[in-house]
Amino acid sequence: MKPTSIRSVILASSVGTLIEWYDFYIFGSLATVIANQFFPKTNPTAALLSTLATFAAGFIVRPFGALVFGRLGDLIGRKYTFLLTLIIMGGSTFAIGLIPSYEKIGVFAPIIVLLLRLLQGLALGGEYGGAATYVAEHAPADRRGYFTSWIQTTATLGLFLSLGIILITRHSLDADRATSIAEFNDWGWRIPFLLSIILVAVSIYIRLKMKESPLFAKLKTEGKTSVNPLKESFAHKGNLKMVLLALFGATMGQGVVWYTGQFYAQSFIENVCKIDFEQSRTILIWAILFGTPFFVVFGKWSDKVGRKWIMMAGMLLAIITYRPLFNKLFSIADTNNKREFIARKEINTKLVPIPNTANSIRTVTSTRHFDEGVKLIEVKTDTLYAAPEKATLKPDIKTSKILNDENYRWMIIIVFVMILYVTMVYGPIAAFLVELFPTKIRYTSMSLPYHIGNGVFGGLTPFIATLLTTIYTADKLVGLYYPMIVAGVCLLIGVLYVSNKIDPNVNN
Amino acid sequence: MLGPVAIYYLIKTAAEEITKKPVIDTKIQWIVFVVIFIPIAIGLMIFGYYALKGEYDRLPESSAEVED
Asked: How many CB pairs below 8 Å do chains A and B form together?
């Protein structure tokens, strides 16, 4: 194949997959805002949990999407199947941006959100396997890892794009920063969802111009495509064996390393370390920016040394270093081990009258300065009643910390190291999965272990890790045991049973 | 061995957590975990069975072997 053709194959596949990831991640990144809009506000924790459950539902339906669209892809072809997933994903994302809030349509709002989220998960389940298979079936044997690694960058870049667009939108709605954020939380959050339709339209245009995978087209011409891909993938012992090996020896560990290094790291920085909303997101954005090229580095390297040991080394490094790395993140932000400069403490009180009453909203902002340039900001908001017999309700307290440049850079370096592990386990995995299965059932067979590994084991990492910290409150790092144990089991199975041999022929 | 142990601890923890906090959120959350992870644990048991039988001692080198 000509270099220009393979470049256009990679571009068309990668752009569409990147947009699907973007669509999927804006929902997760805006979980708190969405909770306020679509779930009852009487209990904020319940609202947030509902969104997280919706988030998890998005991941849990991914394996079903893998079965539905994997089957279609092996029956009618790769091109039309991953075009369909793109349309479903883009349509659902756009529709989420249009749903009236809970205040306007009541319980229908969260129900519609949930249904659209399920559709997103279903579409994502079908997308990745198609894109990876499509690129791999165009690639020469000695460069399969390199070419498919471009697809591997898309998940991380989709997250990068979603965080970037959210931050830009959050600051562009008004000249005054506080007003802009308030407007974003009120209606501006819809913009990233609505914007998706333009990205999807561009991607559909590019994909429509692509041709079917040459290997699938050949099978179809010869009448050798699978009649029942699901049965051949999971009811035939020879193939089922390889599906189980792919799941327990590779994708399960890869999934938890992926989600710990990106999602749980960000959640830990924001919710446990209490770092300010923007700093916690820009730390991840910088780390992703520096880390992303390594997907291609490790993908390319895997063409020379094999896929197995790069992935296993990534898992091993993650298991050994997660606790010290997260501990360092915690200690950077921990004000209990730092000296406070009490004389520099600032307190500002603001009273805003509530229209048509004699009462006011009181906001007390206190800023405390600590050693190593850590600033702790506490904002207390309550209602000040004019009638003295009316008690003031318990104030709403929000705490955040701002780091100085040096500590901010340290956090970027630590998250970058974790993303480096992600690139090790994830960069070579598309080529590894493609080489395990025959062409006629490849889409179905590789999609299921990928989406169980990533969707179920990986996608639930932030949720299960946070749950562990609420059960075992004494240890702030207890949540890490989940990814460490899962990656440990996967490492053991992978080292014992996965082959390092690169399959020179995926044409059969 | 890991499969049955995982199923046992999953159900035990789910029952304990639901008893401790019998609200709808806790119930949904643990029911989802149990429903999703039990089939995976069964898959792990099948994998273990194949591994014990030596099915992975020699991996297939062509699609024809996989389809057998």
From this structure: 64
